[in-house]
Amino acid sequence: MRPAAPSPSIALQARVASARVGQRAILHDLHLALPAGGWSAIVGPNGAGKSTLLRVLAGLLPCEGEVQLLGRPLAGLPTRERARQLAWLGQQEGGGEDLQVQDVVMLGRLPHRPWLAAPTRTDLDVVSQALRTMACLDLRHRRLGELSGGERQRVLLARLLAVQARVVLMDEPLAHLDPPHQADWLATVRALVAGGTTVVSVLHELNMALQADHILVVKAGRLLHFGPSRDEATHRALQAAFDHRISIHPVRGQWIALPQEAAHAD
Ligand SMILES: Nc1ncnc2c1ncn2[C@@H]1O[C@H](COP(=O)(O)OP(=O)(O)OP(=O)(O)O)[C@@H](O)[C@H]1O
């Protein structure tokens, strides 16, 4: 029997010379290596290219350069294998409005199931667990299209969890979530990371991003900084990226970002 291949220490590696949307080059000369089994938050001003970067990392937007997933070129991975290894939640995802919530979450199991096969006991258990984790078990017989924004987001997060991927990418996962559900999301991310999953999230909520292991600061399509969320250099980069319209302070063992009024900006 062959020994198991060692787990790569880098989950996602990208060397992007440029990435275009239509005729416009959005990302430029961007190199990164995201540690496996950690949580990296992508932050930066509006229009910086955060969502574009996440789409490149997911293989949804071609780029001039290369993305590697767990040590292998993403572009060369068979579709089903890629779908099992890497789960994705985009912004304002549409589709499946008439589906029942439990069927939406079952879509997360598709990469694991043979074509047209009925769900296995494992699939059903994983879906129930994902619904429970995202506090949407009570919603399971409702139609996706009739849910509130926050309820819908929790269902889409449950679908993401149901994939049980080793690498999870989320674009603004906290959209529409109230504070208790944001706290649940944070606990879920911590549990995923503790279990060895790699999490990458685009976040506008800087206070949540400051809870991540690492922060990527993106501005004008370039990676300004990548570093631990607790490092002073990371805080300086964050403040610079937002034109010093935020300040970062220690509060009860955590870091928080506060907005600065224009009149008080440096
Ligand atoms: N379909 C498109 N056609 C043309 N330009 C686009 C398109 N999609 C995005 N862009 C542009 O690409 C740039 C980066 O967009 P992106 O959505 O990646 O930024 P972002 O950092 O995620 O922004 P936000 O914080 O506002 O969500 C923006 O200037 C945006 O206008």
UniProtKB/TrEMBL annotation:
Claim: Cell membrane is one of the keywords in the record: yes
Name used for this protein in its record: ABC transporter ATP-binding protein
Residue intervals of the ABC transporter domain: 12-245
Domain of life: Bacteria
Listed transmembrane segments: none
Keywords of this entry: ATP-binding, Cell membrane, Membrane, Nucleotide-binding, Translocase, Transport
A Pfam entry, by short name: ABC_tran
CDD domains: ABC_Iron-Siderophores_B12_Hemin
Keyword Nucleotide-binding annotated: yes
GO molecular function, one term: ATP binding
Gene3D superfamilies: P-loop containing nucleotide triphosphate hydrolases
